[in-house]
Write a structure and sequence with these properties.
Death Domain, Fas; 15 helices; 65% helix; mainly alpha; 2 domains; globular
Amino acid sequence: MNPDDRWERVVRTKFPLIVSQLKARSLLNDLFAQRLIESRDVIRLRSTSNFPTEEDVATELLLQLLPKAGPDGFDKFCNILMKTSGQKALADMLMREESRVDDTSLASPTATAASVLVEKPRRRIKDELLDARVEDKHIDAVKKLVGKKWRDIGRHLPQFSGLDAEDIVSQYIYESPPDSEKFYYVVTAWVWKIGRKATVRKLLEAIDKVDMGEDAREKLGLYA
């Protein structure tokens, strides 16, 4: 596996579990010492006003900072976890997952060819619809399907974060909206934030992260 792929293929596949177990603030000094983050990042992540919980710090580290740390960033991160009290089990899990993905990618040419023969033909996507700006009709089409995952999807929306999603929904806490409406509020705020860059394609990429992308494409009528 290309080292640069490991954040995408290992960390993000186990993202909710890692975030729940990562003692993010306790790692900051070691991450800085290994040049995985910069001093300004340490100061910013220690600010409880910007990142009030460990989960918020972990989300920022895993999605924004560490993937940019270079080809040996993943190995350095795992080594730091191994040496940190209470984090060895998490390091072991990440390294096992890396090994599992490596084994899959090294499957024999014969096995790979056989899998191609039985693979279902891919349906063609209407590309012109993917690059359209997200509108209410798109949100309404999928909100009941993916609403329960509103928090996780919010974390994966580009130029957004889990903290942004929580802040949006907290404005409606007294109304106790259903999950489908929480999803609506979060995606609408994201569209307002980044404007024309908030495309159907990018929304689907976030939904793909929670393994509901195929059903969402069906609901949106994107197949030719």
